[in-house]
Amino acid sequence: MLALIQRVSHARVAVDGETVGEIGPGLLALVGVEPGDGDAQVARMCDRLLGYRVFADARGRMNLGLADTGGGLLLVSQFTLAADTGSGMRPGFSTAAPPDAAEPVFNRLVAACRARNAGVETGRFGAHMEVSLVNDGPVTFLLRA
Q1: What pTM value is reported for the model?
Q2: Sequence-distant (≥ 6) Cβ neighbours of residue 70 within 8 angstroms
Q3: Which end of the chain, N or C, is surrounded by fewer C-beta atoms within 10 Å?
Q4: Cα separation, 46 vs 50, whole angstroms
Q5: For position 124, what pLDDT does the model report?
Q6: What residues are annotated to the active site?
Q7: Cα 99-92-41 angle, rounded to 5 deg
């Protein structure tokens, strides 16, 4: 499981012009599910998303995680993160979990994060989404579970 996280001052995701998820300050996480991902990866990614220290403390150092700040978390499924880009000029997707396997894993991640943080929003799995954000920093990291 992969998550490209961005510290944001605002982020939103829309489907067919309708906002389906929106947060203020917090993290936008684009999540890619790989074959074989299961409960262990969900638990680890949840811990990392809520605890990864990318927010400034009183001294201006990145010492606080989302759980410390009470910020929002916008989870957006993105199978292209798991693409094979090692050769050629076109990505291969055999390294990404197929939708019927990825969706329940993604949903378990959403449920795990919501159980520990009330401010969790999502996109819509499998839909064509428009994601907009204001990256704060910019601060962007790629996490693996």
Answers
A1: 0.95
A2: 119
A3: C
A4: 6
A5: 96
A6: 78-80
A7: 50
**Residue 31, pLDDT score:** 98
Structure token pair of residue 15: 């489907």
Structure tokens at 142: 């790629």
Cα 21 to Cα 63, 125, 129, 144, distances in angstroms: 27, 12, 11, 24
Give the pLDDT confidence of 23-76 residue by residue, as tens digits. 999 999 999 999 999 999 999 999 999 999 999 999 999 999 999 999 999 999
Distance CA 118, CA 126 (A): 24
Amino acid at 68: D
User: pLDDT, tens digit, for every residue of 100-127?
Assistant: 999 999 999 999 999 999 899 999 999 9
> Which residue is it, tokens 């795990």?
112
CATH label, 2-138, candidates 3.40.630.20, 3.50.80.10, 3.40.50.12780, 3.40.50.720: 3.50.80.10
Q: How far apart are CA 115 and CA 2, in angstroms?
A: 20
